[in-house]
Amino acid sequence: MASAVRGTSLKRILLGLLAAVVLLSLVLLARAWSVESRQVDVIPADPLAIDAASAARTLAGLVGIPSISPQDPADFDGGAFARTHAYLAARFPELHAELDRERVADWSLLYTWRGRDPSLRPILLAAHLDVVPAANDEDWTHPPFAGVVRDGVVWGRGAIDDKGSIVALFAAATALLAEGFQPERTVYFALGHDEEIGGDEGAAAIAARLSSRGVSLDWVLDEGGAVAGGFLPGLERDVAVVGIAEKGSVSIALDLEAPGGHSSVPPPHTAIGDLSSAVVALEGNPVPAGFDGTTDAFLDHFTPELPFGFRVVLANRWLFDPVLERVFDGIPQLDAMQRTTTAVTIFDAGVKENILPPNGRVIVNFRIHPHDRVETVRDHVRRVVANERIRLQVGVRSPPRNPSAVSPVDGAAFTTLARCIRSVFPGAVVVPYLVLGGTDARHYGGLTQNVYRFLPFRLDADSMRLLHGTDERLAAADLVRGASFYAELLRRGAGAPGS
Ligand SMILES: [Zn+2]
Q1: In which band, very low, low, confident or very high, does the pLDDT at 499 lie, cut at 50, 70 and 90?
Q2: N or C: which end of the chain has fewer CB within 10 A?
């Protein structure tokens, strides 16, 4: 009798469990089925009618001027920037006749294209004139500053980053001017001259000048995203990542002074040992992660476009977030999206093999997630290192920089941008994301809350490596596509509100 009762209740429990599993599965599947795409529907735009070969030659000429931001300021060559200014004026005469141009901080340029309606807030399109140096010239297929066009491809440093963007933008504006187009809103083109070393002179001065004139912008677009092919296995479509924020950065030095002395009578730990413990502690205790803000926005836009298997997980983040965080932990590119990263970059200690090191220094570079601040990172280091003898110096080598604000993804500016992207890159999935490096865009954060980062070029995994790398190049066809994007953006984004 008793065992029969036990059997019945066991059966009930099993049935209950089974029902719960079935119910849970149904909920998971239903949510995966029902997530709605956030992609805007658009009609593909006609490509801009510009001469691809001529645009490529223009870009090649611009690449041929080595406007380098050198590591050592003493190596700066203002002449290259003066030649760049003259070259742009010569290659885009219509634009230079119609727009006002002013030099800012000697080498940056600010163009003003007056809009029909001065009561509307202007927009600003940013790019940069400078490039990083090209190491090991001999490894390049064509020399980095020769400005070679071969088989419809422009080769050289800056072809993508960011001279391709300048030529595409100016070609688009020139084509629109030929149609008699005048933007509704005033449009600024802001070309910084020191983006690759922080933009603290160029873009910062342009932003300060606009601010001193009382300008408040509707939105800003700078580099920082792109159209990526082969982004994820199982996803054939291109993904257009649009930066809605960028990380901050701070380098913190850990300094330790020790008694020194002869190595024959050592203490249990030398300065090197103690600093090593601190390094191990910092690497073992990363700054806490979080799926908030930018990561949420990224996943919300991405999830509906993924194959069903991925969607079951990503559409049920209420259940799977802890698992997802583990997955992100293990992949450096994803981990950098969810937390402030820790990179021990310099370790400096010791003078002679038989002398105890009298001091030591470790420098750790943190890239700060929008949910942290310089001070939270400093406090984290102090807590984790937990050694009173180690002194912290915050902001060594370069001034600390907080992360940018996070721009909205539900406003008219982002929607217009997404519309323009999809009309020129049909089928591309537009996804907001967090830019892990730095761009000039952050300097314009005081003029608008709508700061976006996107370069209208399609880059696959291989061409991503070309940025700042060897054999940087851009096809003329991509240049024309980029120009088509800017033309769409000037037509729609510089229009009246809601247009
Ligand atoms: Zn750049």
Answers
A1: very low
A2: N
The number of angstroms, rounded, from the C-alpha of 300 to the middle of its chain's C-alpha atoms is 19
Alpha carbon 362 to chain centroid, angstroms: 28
**Cα 195 to ligand 1 centroid, rounded to whole Å:** 7
- The residues, ordered by sequence, that sit 6+ positions from 310 with a Cβ below 8 Å of its Cβ are 234, 303
- What is the rounded distance in angstroms from the CA atom of residue 339 to the CA atom of residue 368? 7
Q: Is 130 a catalytic residue?
A: yes
Lowest mean pLDDT among 27-36, 202-211, 273-282, 342-351: 27-36
Closest CA to 175 of 475, 435, 491, 469: 491
E-state strands within 27-163: 100-104, 108-113, 123-128, 148-150, 153-155
**How far is Cα 74 from Cα 78, in angstroms, rounded to an integer?**
11
Domains of the chain, first to last: 52-243+405-493 (3.40.630.10), 245-394 (3.30.70.360)
Supply the mean pLDDT for the chain: 93
C-alpha closest to that of 76 among 2, 131, 34? 131
Looking at residue 340, its amino acid is: T
Catalytic-residue membership of 195: yes
CA atoms of 252 and 365, how far apart (whole Å): 6
CA of 128 to the centre of ligand 1 (A): 7
